Amino acid sequence: MIRWLCRIFVRPTLAWWPLRGPLSKMMPLVNLALRVVPRLRETECEHVDGGTWRAEFVRPRGAADSVAAILYLHGGAFLFCGLATHRRIVERLALRTGLPVLSVAYRHLPKGRLDESLADAAEAVRWLQTRGIAPDKVVCVGDSAGGHLAFALALNAPAAGLPRPAGVVGLSPWLDFDSVTKLGHRNARSDVFIPARRLSRVGMLCAGNGTEIDPVRSPVNGDLSCLPPVLIQCAEDEVLRCDAELMAERLSAAGVEHRLQIWQGQVHAFPVLGHVLPESSAALDEIATFTTVVLAGSANAA
């Protein structure tokens, strides 16, 4: 049913929706419409105003202060989605791990730039420091474009004056703005969610000059040897499987501990639907286990 709905409604809409002009300004309505979704009673939320960014600090109701946390960066092609669209996965991650989760609404295209989105993510880590949570006790989690930011944040931590995080989790992460390989892959047709050609246009907005993509902007081309342990989850038939497999290959070459999970019969960023699909719920369990393990390793290293 989910795959059918995505193929009939989501993919065609994403294929024609304008990236500029008056209609593009309606993208925030997606997040606004979902603000009516009630919160889970088992969690509590603190609203954070970071100036250029906003966030929700979600934790299990009545939980004591924690020295560790999850930083969640939502997907949406750097164009749409926000706190409301990803509230359920954030709440369920908090309940499964027992940790607070800081879900960040960073600056979007076209008003914001990719560098500004990354800067907002770094400032969110610094906000966690004010709550007694060190950067090396943070697990960065993101789906799709948010997965890009999770990896980019870890790669750029030294330049930002931050220790590397305890771990990185990418859920169908968009890690290579160069779409040549993706356009020629069989999944360009089988993906029921993402129109591959639209990735090329958005990638040019994020990291191009109108004619070519700057390869430095793609996390797959970074110095991966500095990364902490990594978990990547993707769907078997989605076009961003290309990015997941390429990153896993390069992590292996760099000697970085990692795990790539490819799930059959699922859609792009399916763990976000953890309250709908049993496989999505199982994927969240995998994320919770990974988080527990890497935080334990971080504590032992300290």
TrEMBL record:
Residues 70-270 form the Alpha/beta hydrolase fold-3 domain. Pfam families: Abhydrolase_3. The keyword Hydrolase applies. The keyword Hydrolase applies. One of its GO terms (molecular function) is triacylglycerol lipase activity. Gene3D superfamilies: alpha/beta hydrolase. InterPro entries: AB_hydrolase_3 (IPR013094), AB_hydrolase_fold (IPR029058), GDXG_lipolytic_enzyme (IPR050300). SUPFAM superfamilies: alpha/beta-Hydrolases. Keywords: Hydrolase. Belongs to the 'GDXG' lipolytic enzyme family. This is Acetyl esterase/lipase.
